[in-house]
Amino acid sequence: MDVAVSILLTIATAATPLLIAAIGELVVERSGVLNLGVEGMMIMGAVGGFGAAYLTGSPWVGLLAAIILGALFSLVFAVMTLTLATNQVATGLSLTLLGLGLSGMIGTSLVGLPGARLPNLYIPGLSDIPVLGRLFFSQDPIFYLSIALVFGVSWFLFRTRTGLTLRSIGDSHSSAHALGIPVLRYRYLAVMFGGACAGLAGGHLSLVYTPQWVENMTAGRGWIALALVVFASWRPLRVLAGAYIFGAVWIGQLHAQALGIPVPPQFLSALPYVATIVVLVIISRNKRLTLMNTPAALGQPFVPDR
Amino acid sequence: MKKMILALMATAAAIGFTGVAQAQGKLKVCWVYVGPVGDFGYSYQHDQGRLQVEKELGDKVETAFLENVAEGPDAERAFERLAREGCKLIFGTSFGFMDPELKVAAKFPDIKFEHATGFKTAPNMGIYNARFYEGRYILGQIAAKQSQKGLAGYIVSFPIPEVVMGINSFMLGAQSVNPDFKVKVVWVNSWFDPGKEADAAKALFDQGADIIVQHTDSTAPLQVAQERGLHGFGQASDMTKFAPKSQYTAIVDDWGPYYVGRVKAALDGTWKPEDRWEGLKDGAVVMAPYANLPEDVVKAAQETEAKIKGGWNPFTGPITKQDGTEFLAKDAVAEDKALLGMNFYVKGIDDQLPK
To answer: What is the ipTM of this complex?
Structure first.
């Protein structure tokens, strides 16, 4: 039983950064903007979070710094693509490259320093319950935040008027504009929310997952998060399921290997992308499904006075 | 606004072209790393070697490096770029650079190339390596003495000879203490991914291992060991700072003297492609201070270290392969060639080697 609990906890740790980054990107894409810079914003959050935690000695300050830095960094993308209407794909890709390079430069002096880990939750009584206590009442704070984010975003998008407006902008920015909705203001806020989430995901990596700073420590997780949004066909609860499926497959194969069951690790590394392609094929074969799920204006620049 | 964008572009450009500035009259020596220089492991140690070259020969040479270069076809571009930028001596530091580097070496016969941990050479390409396996034999002995359960977890990257040799040497060391010692092997398919390495360490601990060994480059597995109150060994550099209570020792690569020697040879014209494979004896492999260990174990480890420095090879027969056939007869010593092409496990490892 202890082993099972431990495996579940490991899966939760592996899934949390994917989940947070993906849920942020989901909101961005629902507003009709495609930001491929998740990896770059994530690594900026990781270096900023670690740096702030190291300088102040408090991982909580680090957490806050990760969120703020992620949001600020996404502002670069927002100014380029929204105000200057540059190509979103190209700008997003360069944001990733910029983030990877810049974080390496900022983090040079942080390499090799032992970091502070964000403490796990402890609720007297509840945390001591066998099995359940360890699973639900004594994880790291970002885990709870990630679950709250999923349900919060789901409620916001589908149960509030502002959420409806955001989705309508993602489907047709010109119609929304004609109705007098400030399209760019919504998109700015959506992009910054995505950036804050990516930063938080990066903070999870450098403050909880592996409390240290090393260059490239995101190791492609931003890309998996991007794939996850498509895999989930832009639905928050499916992002939750997807993140945990990807996490479980990964951790499961490690255990299979340790048990001596031969599994090809190369195939499993490719699995998130393969699964995403399969989902894309399925939804694009059915026109109704495509219309229902995909934000129709995704990736198109919007210039109000054109 | 425009200014800000220009500044950003300038920053991006600066990041893209760090370290390729050119000075006249100096010999340009370049390195290609598989990971970031800030990995605090394998690539970090190579870069320490580069810095030593700068320090000792800075008035005669200038250095440059490309980091984070993916193994495979991408590496070819990296080597070609350095060659075209005027590098006269280029070190490729990872196994997977072997074929791309060889191709580029054929294109630029006037440039000197060296490749670490591989086995292919050319008239202008030499190879070099360090005998990490010597250190791994000592790790095996320590693990067998310290493990309560007689079970170690071993995190590995790719099934190449260098890595297989390490696992085998570790097991031979462990078996010399406890013939029934077991090891669980997990492949993470990456040289450097702290998250994955941490996951692998957790999986191995969950399955009962109480000591972790790694042939991947980050400090994450040791941190997990420390969190769980268990132990492990550092890889490539001394990782004590990350796990002061958990690191028994580490196999430290010291490339500095080698690089300085080779660059000197290039400067005075005596450089020839060679096949250099140095170990504990030559100081290319150094054991980090033994810590968190009882005295008798430290003493035994030091004795083994001295024995290896005296010329004894951990791959000395009798050694049986996993499938039961004989690898080495009694007292036979493995040839370097057999080690560098090693593609089988020794007896006692339950894992199946991925193909």
So the answer is: 0.82
